[in-house]
Amino acid sequence: MATIGNLANASITEKNQLLNSVKTTVETAFYGNNVQEVLDLQDAYDRANQAPGTIVTDMGVKHTQDLGLPDDAKVLVYNNGKIVGRTAAARVIAEYPETDTKQYEGIIREAIFDGRAEKFLKTEVYVGLDADFMMKSHLMIPEEYANSLYSYMLNFQVKDAIHDAMYQASNKFDENDIYIYADPNWQHPDFPNGLAFFDQAHNVAIILGLSYFGELKKGTLTLAWATAHRNRFVSAHGGMKQYQLADKTYTMAAFGLSGSGKSTITFAPSKRDEQIEILHDDAFVINKTDASATALEPSYFDKTQDYDLTKSSVDYFLTCQNVGVTLNESGEKVPVLRDIRNSNGRAVKSRFMTKNRTDHLASALDAVYWIMKDDSLPPVLKITDPVIAAAFGVTLATKRSSAENIVNGVDKNKLVIEPFANPFRVYPLGEDYQDFRTLFEELGTACYVINTGYFGNKKVTPDVTLDSIDDIIHHEAKFIPYGGLDELLYLEIPGYEVDFSDTHYREKVVERLQTRLNFMEAQTEYNILPGEAKATMAQLIDKLA
Fold it and tell me: Where are the transmembrane segments (predicted)?
């Protein structure tokens, strides 16, 4: 059995490292007489169907028997109010040096006490879909948010005979099950943006005053990724796929924030009609021993801004969040997509959207692609040095997306650095750097940078990106030194010429590299980075300046 949910009587003492105040406080709430357990998806569907604010559309759900749903199940819509994205400002990490955990222990106890008169639901699911990495997660949420509980059970792996057996046979970790207590109705004058408190060492979180479903999904992944990291896995917020070539396989992983093109790259079919297996477009872990990979979720939580009702992907919707509803020509209630109601409309889609889906890839990872939106970069770079490859992952430059609830006047159009495209990391950044460096140096994984934004004033189109990846896979890509550097090479693409004789362009590249170096030098204490990462970036600047 992978993670620990039951303790021997003799081990329930203050000496047990699996126990502390926050974990004990949160888990205790799950056993209250105001809490009802929901493990069956049909039960969850019925409760969500009747929950306040739910809209039952006339769109039928496909593969109901495979999913464990009623034959006549419909796509359910549930909408939030003003906030339709994740609120990073609400996150507090127990392990961070600046966190006064004692203060938060009292706030957490009071929040749970205040919720004692509410009726709650609880469920448990599996996170990780292969015996190489599986853990159990428990969620508790007020009954009126049954729609979120239902979406949670759809997004992760609901318990069934097959996965129960797989879990029993899976690798054992000396780690707690995940426990998440959520109360979107909570309010506190000191936390106007809500509170999402994480104790990653004990796999526990409390999410308060935040009703957006993505907080539950990413909160669970936050703790699952931290657990994986502690147990010799590389945690990955990205998409992974494998091409079945004539004489071998080619496995690639694309790392980028929501809206960067990560899903587009992951789901794109082969341009040469080769068979492709898709692991996932958002969350997986890589075993550091052999670079095999395991998906963490069966379903997809995707933006609906690029969909309309004529697209086949809509057939695999299970629930929708923050979309409109209207009547079609047949008088049927159907979703209004394309972000017409608001930005960041979402849908939980079933795994059956991808006919070529797999939950585990045993083959080693051939290449990592960092997806950036930095207008100083050509569409594709190849990095040949493992230290620089990891350093570019640390300084992944991109732009914020509508998936985030931006507070305090932050400009979402400003170029930002989000290490490894993972804003959900709660362990030291330097450890992630070392993990990816190991992939590049010891396991021979290649590294590329893909710019899916603008190069100068010219947009890098999806066709350019996908054609370039196809050329790389089939060894038809011709790379030449970037600015005379041996460590960085670029792919020549008509219309995206690189001209280092242009002083303005050279200065822009140096400026962006300096921004990366400044970011690395600014990391102290908990997130301090190895000197080699900063030194190599400084050397690149010296060579180009």
Answer: none
